[in-house]
Design a protein that fits this description.
There is one protein chain. Helices cover 35% and strands 13% of the residues. It contains 7 helices and 7 strands. A 7-stranded mixed beta sheet has the order 2-1-3-4-5-7-6. Helix 2 runs parallel beside helix 3.
């Protein structure tokens, strides 16, 4: 992360029970927002999100939020590969403003995809290690959540910087066999498994369904290496060498609640 883009590092003590959710993706933003707004442990926190839908104005809006983030106890940051270059300058400022308080009175949760070569044949799960280490250096996250719904092959995404840039709305091709039907969108899948307006028992049942899908996909992608993902369904997540990661949204709300409590009682 470029140091010359960071503001002066200060400590900000007057932090509030609020959370900034920072992403260029309105679909992921809505998913995070509604999960937290409807969960009994997190529904009392104030949630702050960018409201602009078009990507260029949304970048400017996130950039303008940088100093305001110093009043929040938690920052949830989307660090997927396709949008990270577009938001790097804003993220530099945000981390710079909050750096002195990170893992004390302010925490960061990252949601992202994996390394570009993750889906290549023969790759081991350890390809995540350097990717996670990079994120740890730049963002000092308390938790990294890997989200399979935003991990695409290179030929599935448009990484251009021009006006034609759009985020993919279709499911990643490797996940389509698990969701029969034509043209199923990521937004519909997120909405189904979020089950925001449904009882807690239904939410838990659907989360188990999603976890079963991801477990099948892990066995397909890494045959014979499932032991590397031992514990991934637990709150402790997966340990790969010196790094740890979790699968979004498994135990996501619980992590948010716990970190908010820690920030309030450093």
């Amino acid at each position: 992360m470029a140091n010359d883009a960071e503001p002066d590092i200060l400590s900000h003590q007057a932090r509030k029970p609020q959370i900034h959710i920072l992403s260029l993706d309105p679909v992921l933003t809505d998913d995070v927002y509604e999960r937290l707004e409807n969960h009994p442990k997190t529904r009392f926190y104030r949630l702050i999100i960018p409201n602009t839908l078009q990507w260029k104005p949304r970048i400017r809006e996130i950039d303008a939020m940088a100093q305001d983030t110093t009043s929040s106890r938690l920052l949830i940051i989307d660090v997927r590969r396709i949008t990270l270059p577009k938001l790097q300058q804003a993220y530099n400022k945000i981390v710079g403003y909050n750096r002195k308080d990170l893992n004390k009175t302010c925490f960061t949760i990252l949601i992202g995809d994996g390394p570009l070569n993750l889906l290549q044949p023969g790759k081991a799960p350890d390809v995540f290690v350097s990717h996670l280490a990079f994120m740890r250096v730049d963002y000092t996250p308390a938790v990294f959540f890997y989200d399979p719904l935003i991990h695409y092959d290179a030929d599935e995404i448009d990484s251009s910087m021009d006006e034609s840039f759009v985020l993919p709305t279709e499911l990643p091709k490797r996940l389509k066999p698990f969701f029969p039907g034509d043209g199923i969108k990521v937004a519909a899948v997120r909405s189904f498994f979020r089950a925001a307006a449904l009882p807690e028992d239904t939410k838990k049942q659907r989360l188990k369904m999603l976890a079963a899908i991801y477990q099948k996909r892990i066995k397909q992608q890494f045959p014979g290496r499932e032991d590397k993902f031992k514990g991934w369904l637990s709150k402790n997540g997966v340990r790969l060498a010196t790094e740890k990661m979790h699968f979004y949204p498994i135990f996501f709300e619980d992590w948010v609640h716990d970190l908010m409590q820690k920030a309030a009682n450093p």
